[in-house]
Design a protein that fits this description.
By secondary structure, the chain is an alpha/beta fold. Helix content is 41%, strand content 15%.
Amino acid sequence: MTRIVDHSASREWVDNAVRLIDADAQRSADTHLLRYPLPAAWNVQLYLKDESTHITGSLKHRLARSLFLYSICNGWITENTTVVEASSGSTAVSEAYFARLLGLRFVAVMPRSTSPAKIALIETHGGRCHFVDDPAAMYTEAHRLAAEPDTHYMDQFTHAERATDWRGNNNIAESIFDQLTREESPIPTWVVVGAGTGGTSATIGRYIRYRRHATRLAVVDPENSAFIGGYESGSADFETDKPSRIEGIGRTRIEPSFVGQVIDRMIAVPDAASVAATRHTSTVLGKRVGGSTGTNMWGAFGLISDMISAGNHGSVVTVLCDGGERYADTYFDDSWVADQGMDLTGPTTVLENFLKTGEFAP
C-alpha cells in the first residue's frame, strides 16, 4: 500500500500570511533619503537614509519583515507558532508588530535592566517580555523557550544575512541606489553603516558587488564591540568582555550574520564621539536621531575629510537608523553622559572644526 503523509492544509495560512506582510509593505512608502548640508565648495554630498520613518520607527522594520517571510516560507512559522527573539531593542519592537499582524504570540528575551520605555514599546505592539539577569544568557534562554512545542526562535543574529534578498526586492541597498539616480554623484564613493547583527552590511556589500558598483563599504564599530577585532584578526571567535553602550550596534561576539569579506574598511568610534555626533546631527537636521546614527556620522565625516584632502568629489551615504526620542534619558541626558564617564568637549570641537575647514582630526 502506498503511504501518503499530507501537510498541505497549512498552505492556506501561509499564503494569507505572506499576503498580509506584502500588503503591509505596499501600504508603506519608501523611506526618505535626506541630504545633509555641507559646503558646496567641497564638491562632496552626504545623504542619510532615514529608516526612522518605518511604522515601528527603525531600520529593524526591514529586518523583521524579512525574518518573518524567511521563517514562514521555510515552514518554521505556522498559524499556531509562538515566536521568540533575543532582543531588548528595535528588533523586538518590529517583530512584535509583525507577530500581531499575523495573529501570533511573541516573546522578547531581554536583560532585566532594559529600560521601561523599551519594554513599553514592545508591549504596545502586543509582545511579551521575558527577563534574564545576565545579558549573556539571552541566547541560551531563547533557545530554551523555543524548545517548547509550536515555538520558533527567530534568531536574528544567525539569519539576518540570509533572510534578505541582497540582489534586489526593494532591500535597503537597492532603495539607496534608486533614490540617488538623479543626484550629482549617483554612485556613492562610500556607504557607511554600523553592525548589530551584520545583516545590513552584508546586504549592502553583496549588492554593491552584484551590481559592479565602484562604491566601497565602511562599517563603524563602537567601543567594546567585537566586530572590528574579528575583522582585523580574521577570527570568527573574537569576543570582548563588555557590552556596547551604543544601542543597536556593537556586540560582545562576532555574530553569525557578520560577513567581513564584503566590507572594505572598518572604523572604531569612541562612544563619546558617537554621542557628540548624535547631538550634533540632531541639531543640524532639526530632529533627534539615535546613537547608532551618531556613530555612522562620525565615520562618514572622516571619510569625507579624506576625500576633500585628496581633491576627490562624490557622495557618501549613511543610515539614520532610528529616532532619538527613545534615548531622551541616555544620549541626550547630561547626567547619564557624565555617569558614563564621557567628556563630549573634545569630539564636539572636532565636529565644529570639520564643518568650518573640512579637516577631521579626532
